[in-house]
């Protein structure tokens, strides 16, 4: 699947590629985006019973599957062509037009395609992983009653994600950003009958939206000061020094907040592990390869603006990323659910990327995003395959699966080695680029990054040893996960195996793109003076990180394979630390119990409600008593409040209307009705006897 | 044409009144017939309105009262600000008749009041004269009071009365303000007073401004004069909730943009910070209280307080973009909240409860209703692609420069809205199927589905392509934004 790249890149780089294909026309670029939308619509109409001629012999699930794969393939092929075209153009913007969507006084919002080296790489990643995931889902979700609905939601997600990376305007990007959030909500909550899934879906949406407060402020600030949403205009202006430092600071920090929500950076990271309640194919594309990478993409997209902003902004970004990387990695070591291990690993790796952006390593961040998307998807597919066989995600109930599931085992190990950064797999090259940036820019972050490399190898190989080695612990016969089958473990069907094989190939080879001017290509998206990337490696950095990774593997082997020392010994020797880490640093407790339930619901909301009830009501009822007195005075009776009010009202109304009617005879003809009759009727209706409906 | 729009529901109202009590079906069909005609007319007005020419069009006017002292005109006209309101009113008029199809208790009288309400509101949106505006404003109270107190549920008399007192208190001051303005300006003609604003009355302008504003703020409603709204909504029948949230509240926002600001621009500019503060407070206060609601209908009602805060926020920006946001928000909130109330009624008709704690997993038994409820919820939390997003975004863009703190509160309000909406969805629709609700079935009745589809169409249409609404709104706001821009330049 990397052949398209190599054809056009050639060995000597993109400048001298073979021009086999003409430039892709704009309409076909739109088709990349339209294909999954069409897929969703077609799945919807077939679900509603409309029979498409060429698919009539299949059942409704079979039809949905075929539609999803065909349109996935269309998107993927076109994304390759697009990549080829952008390579011809050295990764520079292809300059497609914009279309006005909304124009209101000074406000003009346009929609258009912003295609350059950065976005075409992202489109390629999204389209490739999407195609593989759709195929994988056919095997994984086969027996689910909501199979077609699942493919429908997936198609919608893919469309939104493609729209996000294609956008030429910030607002257009934000629209898709929110739509991606919606589809993520629908997919996490796919098994909505399970309370945990429903809660996780809601949590993911709200926490990411919390970050979006920053995003909205950012786009408001930039529009007020620059008057445009066009991404390249904003970047060029920032680069040329046309935007003041305070505006740029507010803008970029706002973007960081949005990115932290989407890319699960501390302190908004805690929704992602819960999101693992969704079906595994969802975790592999939405919550590892693409959507969570959107935050990193956003920061990379505005890299010229971040670069032009005061240095402290970059430092903040780098440390948010660095802290998240090590914080999440430490939790990856203690969790027992294999998908959650991968989830924390994703948070940690995204931290790496964010850190790279903050350190000025634009290419390193994108390169790691690129390789990570493939090997992390692969790992999720492996985890799904394992649970498909055992009926559980709890590693304590697995064990010894390497004999029964050779394909899963081998591909999972390849993915883990790549993630751990072992030479010469993909993750090795991309991670080392980040560590190299850190080595030159900030030694503390380099140290953190190297520690993360150690922890990464440790938790991945802990997972491997617990899952594939030792004795089989019997899985879970009474599965609470709706997407699994129980029984004795067996290898998964080819629809699941094939994507894993492709993923393994990518996990091994995609690192070599580093030698093929990947960096220069994605730098085409930056202003010319900012293009200074040269691929190189540094022996010392490379050696230390490799040693760290090997040490991690060794430690995992000693503890979980040989049992020396036993894992329980370690945890009992430092109970405080162990309990803190395994309770995930109490972030959930603080965020949900203290802040949301405590401060917001029981504090603020209860207080506001009380004030509403007591203070405001007292004032109103005070006013009401005055009215009551007046009413009583008028009626000289005390039959109750209501009658007093109504009579007061009627007296007032009659006085006003009567006054005007006395003044004017024309009015009746203008209205064309007999107002007096209405008033009489109203008065009759107002009679207390009529006010209480018959029981 | 506009007189026709005004009189059609009224004609229907009178006709239904004379339908004998036992012939219930006929009353329904008469109501549907007249409200549909009115809607078609509204659609024609909206489409035929010439945006390039702008200004008041289709004007019908006569001199109503002529004395030596003062001339009272009776005039109807429509411009870019009122045209969307008329369209919304026509649409919700039909919807409210459709969702009342099953009303069994004296449908003749019920529909008579409902149609009279539509006429009264039409009068408010179309009036070219202050006194006439006021009369229609008052006329709307009567049918509202009757509908809530007779066909409502729960503490309906209490709620109806509370609604009445609040509005009357506000409108008394409003009348005083109008009279002062008219006396000083020598005319009650809104256009004339806009072109040559009154700068001095017997009382200070700020007092006059706030006297008139108070009526509008109560109607909108804004914290702290909002407590009538949740009660009125909770106890009103579904159709009345739809009208109340959909168009009645918009009379407040419309009044601000049509009367308060253009007639007293100086006073409005001086008060903009207070207005922004009230807006921010409403958004947060309403949103936070919504989170705690246990009654489904009350929850939607409180969310209206929060959402109408955006209208005031847009207005308080005193600029073209903010005004546009406010006008867009009025329209979109009308359709979205209308749909939410229709769906609350849909669930209540089947479960006979509105307590959220008693519901769970309803989407298993009512899949179609559940999906539409989620759709309406997503529209309400401002999802892009649906109409609420554009409106809220325009408000933020327009208001941030003038009022960064209040706007930030508004942006936080969006997060609160996703909180209460999604939490509601989680509790009511998601979760395991409850055998208690085994017997529930989705509706198959055409009036219900027609009403639902009629509301979905504009939400999607204006969400995907807002320009069709924005174009006309822009024309309608040119004059008022011109006035404040000139003044702001002077300050």
Notes on the protein architecture:
The complex is a heterodimer of chains A (695) and B (491). Chain A is mainly α. Chain A folds into three domains: 3-582, no CATH class; 585-638; 641-695. Chain A has helices spanning 3-9, 26-47, 60-88, 117-140, 147-166, 170-188, 195-226, 231-239, 245-262, 271-274, 280-289, 294-301, 303-308, 311-332, 338-358, 362-390, 406-420, 426-441, 443-468, 494-509, 518-522, 539-562, 567-573, 575-582, 587-635, 641-663, 666-671, 675-686, 688-691; strands spanning 98-104, 107-112. Chain A has a two-stranded antiparallel sheet. In chain A, strand 1 and strand 2 form a beta hairpin. In chain A, helix 4 (117-140) packs antiparallel against helix 11 (280-289), helix 5 (147-166) runs antiparallel to helix 6 (170-188) and helix 15 (338-358) crosses helix 18 (426-441). Mean pLDDT of chain A is 82; it is low at 1-16, 478-486, 636-640, 661-675 and 690-695. Chain B is mostly helical. Chain B has a domain at 271-491. Chain B has helices at residues 2-17, 24-48, 82-99, 107-126, 130-139, 141-151, 156-185, 190-195, 205-219, 228-235, 238-263, 265-270, 272-292, 296-316, 320-351, 362-365, 367-380, 387-399, 404-428, 446-464, 467-490; strands at residues 57-66, 71-78. Chain B is globular and about 70 Å long. Chain B starts with a helix and ends with a helix. The chains are: A mainly alpha (695), B mainly alpha (491). Chains A and B meet through strand 1, helix 6, helix 7, helix 25 and helix 26 of A and helix 1, strand 1, helix 5, helix 6 and helix 7 of B.
Tell me, rounded to a whole number, the average pLDDT of chain A.
82
Radius of gyration from the alpha-carbon trace of chain B, in angstroms: 21 Å
Shape category of chain B: globular
Secondary structure class of chain B reads mainly alpha
Mean pLDDT of chain B: 88
Radius of gyration of chain A using CA atoms only: 31 Å
Could you tell me the number of beta strands of chain A? 2
The best one-word shape of chain A is globular
State the major sheet of chain A: 2 strands, antiparallel
Q: Count the domains of chain A.
A: 3
User: Biggest sheet of chain B, strands in spatial order?
Assistant: 1-2
Strand content of chain A: under 5%
Task: Give the strand content of chain B.
Answer: under 5%
> What fraction, in percent, of the residue positions of chain A are helical?
over 70%
- Reading the helices and strands of chain B in chain order gives HHEEHHHHHHHHHHHHHHHHHHH
